Amino acid sequence: MKIAIQGEPGSFSHEAALKFVPDAAIVPCALSADVFAALNSGNADAAAIPIENSLAGSVIEHFDLLLTQDVRVERETLLRIRHNLIAISGAQIGEIDRVFSHPVALAQCRQIFRDHPRMSAQPFYDTAGSVKNLVALGDSHAAAIASEAAARYYGAQILQSGIEDTIDPLSNKISLAFSSENRPGKLVAALSGFADLGANMTKIESRPVHGKPWEYIFFIDCQIPTPEVADQLLAALKPHCAMLQELGRYQEAPAVRQMPSAGPRQ
């Protein structure tokens, strides 16, 4: 199976894709839109995209793409993110003045910049791509934040592991998108049937409707006690919604077991 990801080999999306299909052929894409294009064109059989991080929040662009592209959510997985400060062989942590990585990864590792004021954060398009670029530059004063797999893949060294600010625990399932009229009580009415059906809403995200001020599309993830409840939920929502779209039904991923600390930072 060919699975498209945004980013380079060795990225966290690469790791997530291999959790779904261990022997998958990875199709790296520069942009998130390219991931969906690869899927729609048949250049990839599936795609693995990040939806939410417990520290940095939701990946808003992917909600928009899920709504506008002819795709469906089939499965989910939870990935324990462990960031590492990576440099070329021979570099010393005290000599690093620039650290490259994806903006989300940089946001997850603020403490290391407080610990090392000399370092400045430099946004890059991808975590693994920042390591690839670092090795190509051969600059001993630059570093990257990425996975252990990225360091191995590109032949770089880890200066410090586990630099993320917090452990990344994230908590059958259906994903929906809908809009309702901007009138008092309409959203409450739309959501009122969830509890009655025994459905547990685990996430709600709002996105503005382009060109229509104060109108929003709501994205919802919901645990359902039985498959039949999904259809009942859609039927209950429909009278209250100007637009209702099912994004997918899938088996909820098991919770990630927190890993013990690797010890104090040096």
Task: Please give the domain count.
Answer: 3
The helix/strand class is: alpha/beta
What's the arrangement of strands in the largest beta sheet? 8-7-9-6-10
What does the radius of gyration come to? 21 Å
Q: Beta fraction of the residues?
A: 25-35%
Poorly predicted runs are 167-171, 258-266
**Count of DSSP strands:** 14
Overall pLDDT, averaged? Answer: 88
Q: How would you characterize the largest beta sheet?
A: 5 strands, mixed
Instruction: Report helical residue fraction.
Output: 25-40%
Q: What general outline do the C-alpha atoms trace?
A: elongated
Helical stretch tally: 10
> Which CATH architecture of the largest domain?
3-Layer(aba) Sandwich
CATH C-level label of the largest domain = Alpha Beta
Query: What pattern of helices and strands is seen along the backbone?
Result: EHEHEEEHEEHHEHEHEEHHEEHE
First-to-last CA distance: 42 Å
Which topology of the largest domain does CATH recognise? Answer: D-Maltodextrin-Binding Protein, domain 2
CATH superfamily of the largest domain: Periplasmic binding protein-like II
Structure commentary:
This protein has 266 residues and is α/β, with parallel strands linked by helices. The chain folds into three domains: 2-68, Periplasmic binding protein-like II (D-Maltodextrin-Binding Protein, domain 2); 84-161, D-Maltodextrin-Binding Protein, domain 2; 173-250, ACT domain (Alpha-Beta Plaits, 2-Layer Sandwich), CATH 3.30.70.260. It contains ten helices and 14 strands. It has helices at 12-20, 32-41, 60-68, 103-107, 110-115, 127-137, 148-154, 186-191, 193-196, 227-237; strands spanning 2-6, 25-29, 46-47, 52-53, 57-58, 84-87, 98-101, 120-123, 142-146, 157-161, 173-179, 200-208, 216-223, 243-250. It has a five-stranded mixed sheet with strand order 8-7-9-6-10. A four-stranded antiparallel sheet has the order 12-13-11-14, sandwiched between helices. It is elongated and about 65 Å long. The termini are far apart.
